[in-house]
Each structure stands twice: as C-alpha cells, then as structure tokens.
Amino acid sequence: MRYWLVMPAAGAGRRFGSAKQYARLGQRTVLELSLREFLDDDQCAGGSLVLAVDDPQRAQLQRDLPSRMALVDGGTERAHSVCNGLRALEARASADDWVLVHDAARPILSGADLAQLLRHGASDSVGALLAIPVADTVKRAPLQPAATDMVARCETTLSREALWLAQTPQMFRYAPLRSALEQAIALGRKPTDEAQAMEWQGHAALLVASHDQNIKVTTRADLILAEAILAQRALAQRVAR
C-alpha cells in the first residue's frame, strides 16, 4: 500500500518550556526521531511537515528533508495545522489515498506498531488509530478552574472496560479526513484528534492496540523516559544479534 504523512509540529511546547520537537533525544532531535520510521518506509510516498510560521529551524529542515516532504505553515489549532497539511497534498494525493497523521512529539513509535496499524487500517472502510486500553482505575471530578496544586474532589468512578487512550498515527482516507476537518473548522468545533472529527461525521475508526511504548513527550520527564526506552530497545537488538 501507499500512504501520505501529515506531521503537525507547530506547537510552542508551553508545558515543556520550549519547542519540544527540537529537544535532543540521544544524538537526534525529537522531530528527527518522529520522522524516522516514515522516511525509512518505502510505503510512505511523502507528506507535509507542518511548522509554525516563524519556526527558526525551517531553513535547515528544508535542506535536510527529502524532496517528497513539503514544509507547510501551521494554524491556530491542531485541526487547522493538519488541514493545512492535507491541502498541501491536494495535487499529489488521490481522494482515496491513505493519510497518516502522527504527532511530532511521539518519537519512539516502533516499526512493529506502525506495521500493525497499516495492516489493520488498510482493510477497514473508515481507518484506524493506535491506542491503548486503560489499565488504571478512572475517577471523574466536577469541572472547575484548574488549580495550581491539581487537587480535586472525586465525583465518581468510571468503568475502564470500554476506555482506550488514543495515540498516533491515525490513518484515514484523504478526502473524508479533509472534509471532516474542514467541516469541523467551519462550525467552530475543535476536535482533539482526527478520529474525533471523523466521529462527528458518523465514521468510527478501528482502535489498534499498540504493543510497544509510544509515549508523547510533554514534559522533561517524558524526555528522560523516552531516552531510557530507546536505550533498552537498542540493547535488546544487540543481544538478539
């Protein structure tokens, strides 16, 4: 199969304290590692890397990235950025081509999980996303202004049996995904991921369980954890040889 990649990387990294996509993770940046699985995959025809308009690394990325990857300006929200990335593919992607949207802040996606997502998603009429079943007990608290000490009163306990935590990549056909995001934006809605925009159009995607760590780098502690996971994988590969 062939697919296109859209990678939103226009965030300012407020919780991280800087543009986390350029933080170092070993010998590479978070962004370089997030792109690696796709750039090394012959099935990836190309795609869009969506950056902030004033991104200081734009010129360097333009020199380093293969020509099949276009640099695209981001928008005010994630949905705007992904939509801009899809529009940039208009001349290259067919309506029924698959598009994978992957967070620039998920640098340790494994090749095995990517292959599993592609295998299941390609056989589905809607698409699929990586996710993990919730393992912890889930509590709900009343909506209230965020407190600096993050203390809230437990309102109830939710059943975790049907709950999953969404990850990326998320894969959908080009035309339905673009239409879903454009309609959400036109209505002033803010989907938190692509699957939600598709749900609003009545399309339910497959949840494909990821078997390897696929954490999102949000804080400095996440960066340390990601580095430890990559080191463990490298050790396991050496032992396997």
Attribute tags:
single chain; 241 residues; two-stranded antiparallel sheet; alpha/beta; 23% strand; 7-stranded mixed β-sheet; globular
Description:
The protein is of the alpha/beta class. It is built from seven helices and eleven strands. It starts with a strand and ends with a helix.
Summarize the entry for a quick read.
With 241 residues, the chain is α/β, with parallel strands linked by helices. It is 33% helix and 23% strand. The strands form three sheets. It has a seven-stranded mixed sheet with strand order 5-4-1-6-10-7-11, sandwiched between helices. A two-stranded antiparallel ribbon has the order 2-3.
Output the helix-strand order: EEEHEHEHEHEEEEHHEH
**Rg, Å, rounded:** 18 Å
- Assign an overall shape: globular
End-to-end C-alpha gap: 30 Å
Largest beta sheet: strand ordering = 5-4-1-6-10-7-11
Largest sheet: 7 strands, mixed
**So how many helices?**
7
What percentage of amino acids are in beta strands?
15-25%
Structural class: alpha/beta
Number of strands: 11
| Overall pLDDT confidence | 93
State the low-pLDDT regions, or none.
none
Helix coverage percent of residues?
25-40%
Secondary structure layout plus pairing:
Blueprint: E1 3-9, E2 24-25, E3 28-29, H1 30-39, E4 44-51, H2 58-64, E5 69-73, H3 78-87, E6 98-101, H4 111-122, E7 127-133, E8 138-140, E9 156-158, E10 164-173, H5 174-186, H6 194-199, E11 206-209, H7 220-240
Parallel strand pairs: 1-4, 1-6, 4-5, 7-11
Antiparallel strand pairs: 2-3, 6-10, 7-10, 8-9
